[in-house]
Specification:
about 170 residues; mainly alpha; about 65% helix; about 0% strand
């Protein structure tokens, strides 16, 4: 048992996980087992898991294996890498992180609020459709609302010096 724990904590194991793109699936598995167990043990609200989990899992898998790869491919085609002025990049990282949080959060809030306007509500209403809340409930209504609200986050990533509007795994796509 001690050898297993030692291996799981080793650099070799971490390298294997990263080389074979197993980080996200393992993280998801830990969340499924761990967070679901905690929610069953100490629920905030009753959730009919057998009814909602298959749908949310399907949406998650489509997003993980269709949308993320498509976003990554589009990122490689477009490969937009704007450059920040040196004065911004010279700011301490802590100050850039604070700016990121303020600008991204305010931008996300106002765009989300704009999505409640009558002209955009038909697209956005699915974001408010779920009648249940648990750790994976975001899957059901998140994706139709996520795209329009993300530009402030993408642009603010530049403050951190990432130089990319979409990260290498496609997690800042579409």
């Amino acid at each position: 048992m001690e050898e297993l724990v030692s291996y799981l904590l080793s650099r070799e194991f971490r390298a294997y996980i990263l080389e074979h793109d197993l980080f996200s699936p393992l993280l998801f598995l830990v969340r499924v087992v761990g967070i679901t167990a905690i929610e069953i043990w100490r629920p905030a609200r009753p959730v009919a898991y057998r009814k909602v989990f298959p749908y949310d899992l399907t949406v998650f898998l489509v997003y993980q294996f269709v949308v993320f790869p498509a976003a990554s491919q589009i990122n490689h085609w477009i490969y937009l890498r704007p450059h920040l002025p040196d004065t911004i990049l010279a700011l301490p990282l802590v100050l850039r992180v604070v700016c990121y949080l303020v600008i991204a959060d305010c931008g996300h809030y106002w765009i989300h609020r704009l999505m409640h306007h009558q002209a955009l509500w038909r697209i956005h209403k699915w974001h408010h459709a779920p009648t249940y809340m648990y750790w994976m409930g975001w899957c059901a209504g998140h994706h139709s609302a996520a795209g329009p609200c993300q530009p402030p986050l993408y642009l603010c990533l530049l403050l951190l010096g990432s130089g990319s509007l979409v990260d290498e795994s496609g997690h800042r796509g579409l």
